[in-house]
Amino acid sequence: MTTHLVWFRQDLRLHDNLALAAACRN
User: Fold this and answer.
1) DSSP symbol at 1
2) What angle do CA 23, 16, 8 make, to 5 degrees?
3) CA distance 24 to 21
4) Which helix (H) or strand (E) holds 10?
5) Transmembrane stretches, by residue range (predicted)?
6) What's the predicted TM-score (pTM) here?
7) The domain containing residue 8 runs over which residues?
């Protein structure tokens, strides 16, 4: 269960980074 939480948090962080990258492009 703990590993799943870590993976979920990393996925959210990656999504935030992609959103930031898209915002920087515009």
Assistant:
1) -
2) 165
3) 5
4) helix 2-25
5) none
6) 0.38
7) 1-25
> How far apart, in whole angstroms, are the C-alpha atoms of residue 13 and residue 17?
6
Sole residue written with tokens 């915002």: 23
CA angle in degrees (0–180, nearest 5) for 19-25-18: 20
Name the domain count of the chain: 1
The CA-CA-CA angle for residues 22, 25, 26, to 5°, reads 95
- Residues 4 and 18: their CA atoms lie apart, in Å, by 21
